[in-house]
Structure formats: structure tokens, C-alpha cells
Specification:
This protein has 104 residues and is α+β, with helices and mostly antiparallel strands. A hairpin with a 5-residue loop joins β2 and β3.
């Protein structure tokens, strides 16, 4: 993780938020393993995990985990499916993502 990202998290200790981190990727993905972003209950984010549909899917899942008071969640984002092809996405891989919540 970048130092700025770690500093950002330290300054928000005790706030309700989720941190989504890519565990591994296969194929062409917008970001690679180790990339993280912060998601707040209202959907606001800090950082990026790649943008587009993948980031939105991860953001929505993080918001849901916060809402359901889950301490963690693991999701798989597939950018090879029919929806991705119809949207003309240039990516074509998949991402395994860990979502950790705090102060739930």
C-alpha cells in the first residue's frame, strides 16, 4: 500500500468504512493485486480499484457489507461475462477482492 493511503486510514480510525483490496487477478484487469480503495456507507470512495463496472460492483458490495455489519467479505469480479462484452469493455480478466469493514 502507498504511504498516503496508510496515512489516510490512520486519520480515519474509528470511522465507519470498508477497505476493498484486490487479492489476485487473472487476465487483463484495470488494477493488480494489492490495490485498495476506501468505501464509505454513502458510496463515497477514496482511491480507485480500477474504475468502471468493476469498481462500481466492488463499491456496491462494500456498501452492502457495511449495511449488513459484516466484518469482511470476499467477492469475485468477472470481466469476461456477457455484460462486459456488450459494454465494450477492454478488460477481460477477473479479480478476487477482499472487503474489510471497520467500526460497524
Amino acid at each position: 500500500m502507498e504511504r498516503a493511503f496508510i496515512d489516510y486510514l490512520k486519520q480515519r480510525e474509528g470511522e465507519k468504512l470498508a477497505v476493498a483490496t484486490i487479492l489476485q487477478t487473472h487476465g487483463h484487469t484495470p488494477r493488480k493485486a494489492g490495490t485498495s480503495m476506501v468505501v464509505y456507507p454513502n458510496g463515497q470512495i477514496f482511491g480507485t480499484i480500477g474504475g468502471g463496472r468493476a469498481e462500481n460492483e466492488i463499491r456496491l458490495s462494500a456498501m452492502d457489507a457495511l449495511d449488513k455489519k459484516e466484518a469482511f467479505r470476499r467477492i469475485f469480479v468477472d470481466l469476461n461475462d456477457d455484460v462486459s462484452v456488450k459494454e465494450g469493455m477492454v478488460c477481460g480478466g477477473n479479480m478476487d477482492v477482499w472487503i474489510r469493514t471497520q467500526n460497524i
